[in-house]
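agent> Task received from the user: take the single chain below, predict its 3D structure, and emit structure tokens. No templates, no multimer pairing.
agent> Plan: (1) validate residues, (2) run structure prediction, (3) serialize to tokens, (4) report one or two observations.
agent> Step 1 OK, no nonstandard residues flagged.
tool_call: predict_structure(input=
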Amino acid sequence: MRTDLAKPPVRSVLIVEDDRSARTAIARLLAKRGFAVSEAGSVAQAVSALDEQPHWILLDLMLPDGNGTSVLRKVRADRLASRVCIVTGCCDDMLRDAQRTGAEHTFIKPLDVERLLSVLSH
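)
tool_result: status=success, residues=122
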């Protein structure tokens, strides 16, 4: 019996969120749903984690060392295949900038978990 066809590929998600409790909660939820999860709490940590080329990036815009849009710009400039979901509670101008930069989806905090799971599953 071939087991290499038994399981679909695991999708990886990088969660970029400076609020540790929110980041941990999302990470646990996604891990329970079978996602391979990595975490970053700053722009610098997120940029380092891009080497792993996650399938998805959940990206907060307000980070302690800068704007999350700079991470999105790096993803686009490096032509990474990672898809980006903005998850933020910040102002409209920053959100519009992220959308213009190429975020595939946007979520306003508090996070709609069911919608997020639906998006990440496709």
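agent> Step 4: summary for the user.
The first strand starts at residue 12 and ends at 16.
agent> Done.
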